Amino acid sequence: MNRLALATVLAAQLALISASPAQQTTSSTDAVISPIKKGQVAPFSGLLFSPRAAASVAVEIESIKEQVKLSAARAREEERAIRGRDVADVVAAAATDRKIAQAQMSEQVRMTAAIDEQLRREQASRSNSTFWYTVTAVAGVVIGVGLTALAAGAR
Question: pTM to 2 decimals?
């Protein structure tokens, strides 16, 4: 990252190099590119780049745009992944909640069926007791009438 920052600063300085006062053909804001030979005095003050260094800086400046695009795409993908994970968590939680609710409903149905069965048994046993009360009462009446008839016949 420091190399990239240095390249950016160097490129900016290269673009803003001002001409020396001795040159009348350029203003102080013009960028100047002047080929020079080894040992020759530069016609302006500023930074001197070899052709390879200048090409390297230019390539790095051009690659910054692509790096920004790639970083933005990566950030978008990471955000999508986080959102996707959140959605997956919500879906999993909903599925778990649904299974819990189904288990609770199944338990409720089972308990209701057990209570219904118990109620049916109690009603059946009540019917039997009513039947036996009726049988006992009828038997008592028959025995009473029979004893009365016996007593009346014995007299």
Answer: 0.36
